[in-house]
Amino acid sequence: MFPTPLAILIWYAPESPWWLARKGRLEEAAHSIERLGRKSRLNASETVAMMRRVVELEKSTKEPNHLELFRGTDLYRTLIVCGVYAAQNLTGNLIANQAVYFFEQAGISTNTAFALGLITSALQMIFVMLSWILTTYLGRRTIYLWGSLGNTVLLVALGVAGSVSISNSASLAQASLGLIISVLFTLGPAPASWVIIGETSAIRLRPLTTGMGRASYYIVEIPCIFLASWMLNPTGGNLSGRCGYVWGATGLVCLVTAYFFLPEMKGRSYREIDILFKRKVPARKWKEEHVDVEDDE
Q1: What's the CA gap between 287 and 89, in Å, rounded?
Q2: Can you say how many angstroms the Cα of residue 95 is from the centroid of all Cα atoms in its chain?
Q3: Is the alpha carbon torsion for 30, 36, 42, 46 positive or negative?
Q4: Which of 75, 137, 138, 162 is least enclosed by beta carbons within 10 angstroms?
Protein backbone atom coordinates (compact mmCIF):
# COMPACT_ATOMS: atom_id res chain seq x y z
CA MET A 1 0.00 0.00 0.00
CA PHE A 2 2.59 2.55 1.11
CA PRO A 3 5.05 2.21 -1.82
CA THR A 4 2.30 3.20 -4.28
CA PRO A 5 1.92 6.88 -3.30
CA LEU A 6 5.69 7.13 -2.84
CA ALA A 7 6.25 5.76 -6.35
CA ILE A 8 3.93 8.45 -7.70
CA LEU A 9 5.38 11.32 -5.66
CA ILE A 10 8.97 10.46 -6.49
CA TRP A 11 8.41 11.65 -10.07
CA TYR A 12 7.68 15.15 -8.71
CA ALA A 13 10.59 15.23 -6.25
CA PRO A 14 13.52 17.50 -7.20
CA GLU A 15 16.83 15.86 -8.01
CA SER A 16 19.66 16.15 -5.49
CA PRO A 17 21.56 19.40 -6.23
CA TRP A 18 24.78 17.75 -5.03
CA TRP A 19 24.38 14.94 -7.56
CA LEU A 20 23.69 17.46 -10.31
CA ALA A 21 26.74 19.54 -9.30
CA ARG A 22 28.93 16.43 -9.44
CA LYS A 23 27.62 15.76 -12.95
CA GLY A 24 28.40 19.34 -14.04
CA ARG A 25 24.72 20.24 -14.51
CA LEU A 26 25.03 23.48 -12.56
CA GLU A 27 21.94 25.28 -13.91
CA GLU A 28 19.76 22.30 -12.98
CA ALA A 29 21.41 22.23 -9.56
CA ALA A 30 20.48 25.89 -9.00
CA HIS A 31 16.89 25.20 -10.05
CA SER A 32 16.73 22.23 -7.68
CA ILE A 33 18.03 24.36 -4.80
CA GLU A 34 15.32 26.93 -5.44
CA ARG A 35 12.67 24.18 -5.35
CA LEU A 36 14.03 22.75 -2.10
CA GLY A 37 14.21 26.07 -0.22
CA ARG A 38 12.75 29.54 -0.07
CA LYS A 39 14.00 31.77 -2.88
CA SER A 40 13.87 34.79 -0.56
CA ARG A 41 16.35 33.13 1.82
CA LEU A 42 18.58 31.40 -0.70
CA ASN A 43 21.18 32.60 -3.14
CA ALA A 44 21.19 29.66 -5.54
CA SER A 45 24.24 30.83 -7.51
CA GLU A 46 26.37 31.16 -4.36
CA THR A 47 25.21 27.79 -3.11
CA VAL A 48 26.08 26.12 -6.41
CA ALA A 49 29.48 27.84 -6.38
CA MET A 50 30.11 26.39 -2.90
CA MET A 51 29.03 22.94 -4.11
CA ARG A 52 31.29 23.21 -7.15
CA ARG A 53 34.24 24.08 -4.92
CA VAL A 54 33.57 21.13 -2.64
CA VAL A 55 33.27 18.78 -5.61
CA GLU A 56 36.63 20.01 -6.93
CA LEU A 57 38.21 19.43 -3.50
CA GLU A 58 36.76 15.92 -3.43
CA LYS A 59 38.35 15.14 -6.78
CA SER A 60 41.74 16.30 -5.50
CA THR A 61 41.67 13.84 -2.59
CA LYS A 62 41.76 10.07 -2.46
CA GLU A 63 38.68 7.88 -2.27
CA PRO A 64 37.15 7.87 1.24
CA ASN A 65 37.44 4.72 3.35
CA HIS A 66 35.92 3.53 6.60
CA LEU A 67 39.10 4.08 8.59
CA GLU A 68 38.75 7.84 8.08
CA LEU A 69 35.51 7.76 10.10
CA PHE A 70 37.58 7.05 13.22
CA ARG A 71 40.33 9.61 12.77
CA GLY A 72 40.58 13.14 14.15
CA THR A 73 37.44 15.27 14.10
CA ASP A 74 35.70 12.76 11.84
CA LEU A 75 35.55 10.38 14.82
CA TYR A 76 33.55 12.99 16.75
CA ARG A 77 31.21 13.46 13.80
CA THR A 78 30.79 9.70 13.38
CA LEU A 79 29.95 9.32 17.07
CA ILE A 80 27.31 12.05 16.85
CA VAL A 81 25.62 10.35 13.89
CA CYS A 82 25.78 6.90 15.52
CA GLY A 83 24.56 8.31 18.84
CA VAL A 84 21.58 10.11 17.31
CA TYR A 85 20.64 7.00 15.33
CA ALA A 86 20.94 4.73 18.38
CA ALA A 87 19.04 7.15 20.63
CA GLN A 88 15.90 6.68 18.53
CA ASN A 89 15.57 3.25 20.18
CA LEU A 90 16.32 4.48 23.69
CA THR A 91 13.86 7.34 24.17
CA GLY A 92 10.53 5.52 24.23
CA ASN A 93 10.04 5.22 20.49
CA LEU A 94 9.53 1.45 20.81
CA ILE A 95 6.28 2.14 22.70
CA ALA A 96 4.93 3.62 19.46
CA ASN A 97 6.13 0.58 17.51
CA GLN A 98 4.10 -1.68 19.82
CA ALA A 99 1.30 0.77 20.50
CA VAL A 100 -1.70 -1.58 20.32
CA TYR A 101 0.02 -4.24 22.45
CA PHE A 102 1.08 -1.59 24.96
CA PHE A 103 -2.48 -0.26 25.26
CA GLU A 104 -3.78 -3.78 25.86
CA GLN A 105 -1.22 -4.46 28.59
CA ALA A 106 -2.13 -1.13 30.17
CA GLY A 107 -5.64 -2.52 30.69
CA ILE A 108 -7.47 -1.11 27.67
CA SER A 109 -9.96 -3.33 25.84
CA THR A 110 -8.87 -4.89 22.52
CA ASN A 111 -11.18 -2.79 20.33
CA THR A 112 -10.27 0.46 22.10
CA ALA A 113 -6.56 -0.42 21.97
CA PHE A 114 -6.79 -0.96 18.22
CA ALA A 115 -8.62 2.36 17.79
CA LEU A 116 -5.99 4.15 19.89
CA GLY A 117 -3.29 2.57 17.72
CA LEU A 118 -4.91 4.03 14.60
CA ILE A 119 -5.28 7.42 16.29
CA THR A 120 -1.61 7.32 17.29
CA SER A 121 -0.51 6.63 13.70
CA ALA A 122 -2.74 9.39 12.33
CA LEU A 123 -1.48 11.94 14.86
CA GLN A 124 2.12 10.95 14.18
CA MET A 125 1.65 11.70 10.49
CA ILE A 126 0.18 15.13 11.32
CA PHE A 127 2.90 15.96 13.84
CA VAL A 128 5.67 14.96 11.43
CA MET A 129 4.30 17.53 8.98
CA LEU A 130 4.13 20.12 11.79
CA SER A 131 7.78 19.39 12.52
CA TRP A 132 8.65 20.81 9.08
CA ILE A 133 7.58 24.20 10.40
CA LEU A 134 9.39 23.67 13.70
CA THR A 135 12.73 22.80 12.10
CA THR A 136 12.47 25.89 9.89
CA TYR A 137 12.41 28.33 12.81
CA LEU A 138 14.11 26.52 15.70
CA GLY A 139 17.60 25.06 15.97
CA ARG A 140 18.26 21.35 15.72
CA ARG A 141 19.94 21.23 19.14
CA THR A 142 17.04 23.19 20.69
CA ILE A 143 14.38 20.87 19.25
CA TYR A 144 16.32 17.74 20.12
CA LEU A 145 17.14 18.70 23.71
CA TRP A 146 13.72 20.07 24.65
CA GLY A 147 11.97 17.22 22.87
CA SER A 148 14.14 14.64 24.66
CA LEU A 149 13.58 16.38 27.98
CA GLY A 150 9.81 16.34 27.49
CA ASN A 151 9.90 12.68 26.49
CA THR A 152 12.01 11.73 29.52
CA VAL A 153 9.65 13.50 31.93
CA LEU A 154 6.59 11.87 30.33
CA LEU A 155 8.25 8.42 30.44
CA VAL A 156 8.86 8.77 34.16
CA ALA A 157 5.24 9.92 34.58
CA LEU A 158 4.19 6.79 32.65
CA GLY A 159 6.17 4.67 35.09
CA VAL A 160 4.43 6.36 38.02
CA ALA A 161 1.01 5.77 36.43
CA GLY A 162 1.89 2.09 36.03
CA SER A 163 2.99 1.82 39.66
CA VAL A 164 -0.28 2.89 41.31
CA SER A 165 -3.04 0.46 42.16
CA ILE A 166 -4.83 -1.22 39.25
CA SER A 167 -7.86 0.83 38.28
CA ASN A 168 -9.66 2.19 35.24
CA SER A 169 -8.17 5.63 35.87
CA ALA A 170 -4.64 4.22 36.02
CA SER A 171 -5.20 2.32 32.75
CA LEU A 172 -6.49 5.45 31.01
CA ALA A 173 -3.56 7.48 32.36
CA GLN A 174 -1.06 4.94 31.00
CA ALA A 175 -2.79 4.81 27.61
CA SER A 176 -2.93 8.61 27.40
CA LEU A 177 0.72 9.04 28.32
CA GLY A 178 1.77 6.29 25.90
CA LEU A 179 -0.10 8.03 23.10
CA ILE A 180 1.34 11.46 23.96
CA ILE A 181 4.91 10.10 24.16
CA SER A 182 4.55 8.36 20.79
CA VAL A 183 3.15 11.47 19.12
CA LEU A 184 5.50 14.07 20.63
CA PHE A 185 8.49 11.96 19.63
CA THR A 186 7.53 12.58 15.99
CA LEU A 187 7.39 16.34 16.60
CA GLY A 188 10.73 16.78 18.33
CA PRO A 189 13.59 14.26 18.53
CA ALA A 190 12.61 12.12 15.53
CA PRO A 191 12.58 14.76 12.75
CA ALA A 192 15.47 16.69 14.30
CA SER A 193 17.53 13.48 14.27
CA TRP A 194 17.38 13.18 10.49
CA VAL A 195 18.44 16.80 9.99
CA ILE A 196 21.33 16.35 12.43
CA ILE A 197 22.45 13.16 10.70
CA GLY A 198 22.44 14.89 7.30
CA GLU A 199 24.41 17.93 8.47
CA THR A 200 26.99 16.39 10.81
CA SER A 201 29.09 14.17 8.57
CA ALA A 202 31.77 15.51 6.25
CA ILE A 203 30.43 15.66 2.70
CA ARG A 204 32.97 13.27 1.19
CA LEU A 205 32.38 10.78 4.03
CA ARG A 206 28.61 11.15 4.21
CA PRO A 207 27.63 7.82 2.59
CA LEU A 208 30.04 5.93 4.86
CA THR A 209 29.03 7.85 7.98
CA THR A 210 25.32 7.37 7.30
CA GLY A 211 25.87 3.66 6.70
CA MET A 212 27.82 3.34 9.95
CA GLY A 213 25.11 5.25 11.81
CA ARG A 214 22.38 3.04 10.40
CA ALA A 215 24.33 -0.04 11.43
CA SER A 216 24.53 1.30 14.99
CA TYR A 217 20.76 1.84 14.88
CA TYR A 218 20.12 -1.84 14.18
CA ILE A 219 22.77 -3.01 16.66
CA VAL A 220 20.88 -1.16 19.40
CA GLU A 221 17.39 -1.83 18.04
CA ILE A 222 17.54 -5.63 18.00
CA PRO A 223 18.15 -6.12 21.75
CA CYS A 224 15.82 -3.22 22.55
CA ILE A 225 12.95 -4.89 20.66
CA PHE A 226 13.43 -8.06 22.70
CA LEU A 227 13.64 -6.00 25.90
CA ALA A 228 10.53 -3.97 25.05
CA SER A 229 8.52 -7.11 24.26
CA TRP A 230 9.72 -8.87 27.41
CA MET A 231 8.84 -5.90 29.62
CA LEU A 232 5.26 -5.76 28.30
CA ASN A 233 4.62 -9.51 28.11
CA PRO A 234 2.52 -10.82 31.06
CA THR A 235 4.69 -13.97 31.13
CA GLY A 236 7.86 -11.85 31.06
CA GLY A 237 8.47 -8.64 32.98
CA ASN A 238 4.76 -7.73 33.04
CA LEU A 239 5.72 -4.11 33.63
CA SER A 240 3.05 -2.42 31.46
CA GLY A 241 3.44 1.33 32.13
CA ARG A 242 6.35 0.76 34.48
CA CYS A 243 8.53 0.25 31.40
CA GLY A 244 8.54 4.06 31.42
CA TYR A 245 11.16 3.93 34.19
CA VAL A 246 13.50 1.94 31.95
CA TRP A 247 13.05 4.11 28.87
CA GLY A 248 13.11 7.23 31.04
CA ALA A 249 16.54 6.21 32.37
CA THR A 250 17.97 5.50 28.91
CA GLY A 251 16.35 8.68 27.62
CA LEU A 252 18.02 10.68 30.40
CA VAL A 253 21.43 9.28 29.42
CA CYS A 254 20.78 10.29 25.79
CA LEU A 255 19.63 13.77 26.89
CA VAL A 256 22.72 14.45 29.03
CA THR A 257 25.04 13.14 26.30
CA ALA A 258 23.36 15.35 23.68
CA TYR A 259 23.59 18.40 25.96
CA PHE A 260 27.37 18.13 26.15
CA PHE A 261 28.23 16.82 22.68
CA LEU A 262 25.52 17.85 20.18
CA PRO A 263 26.31 21.21 18.49
CA GLU A 264 23.83 23.63 16.92
CA MET A 265 24.29 23.55 13.15
CA LYS A 266 21.24 25.52 12.02
CA GLY A 267 22.15 28.35 9.68
CA ARG A 268 25.69 27.04 9.12
CA SER A 269 27.06 26.13 5.70
CA TYR A 270 28.96 22.87 5.27
CA ARG A 271 32.15 24.91 5.08
CA GLU A 272 31.41 26.56 8.43
CA ILE A 273 30.54 23.21 10.01
CA ASP A 274 33.85 21.75 8.81
CA ILE A 275 35.75 24.73 10.25
CA LEU A 276 33.98 24.59 13.62
CA PHE A 277 34.67 20.87 13.98
CA LYS A 278 38.34 21.44 13.13
CA ARG A 279 38.50 24.23 15.72
CA LYS A 280 37.12 21.77 18.30
CA VAL A 281 34.62 24.32 19.54
CA PRO A 282 32.59 22.93 22.49
CA ALA A 283 29.08 21.90 21.40
CA ARG A 284 27.38 24.44 23.68
CA LYS A 285 29.35 27.35 22.19
CA TRP A 286 28.76 26.81 18.47
CA LYS A 287 26.12 29.53 18.28
CA GLU A 288 28.57 32.08 19.69
CA GLU A 289 31.51 31.15 17.46
CA HIS A 290 32.09 33.42 14.47
CA VAL A 291 33.40 32.14 11.15
CA ASP A 292 34.65 34.82 8.79
CA VAL A 293 34.00 34.66 5.07
CA GLU A 294 37.75 34.55 4.44
CA ASP A 295 38.40 31.72 6.89
CA ASP A 296 39.57 28.57 5.15
CA GLU A 297 40.88 26.08 7.71
Answers
A1: 28
A2: 17
A3: negative
A4: 137
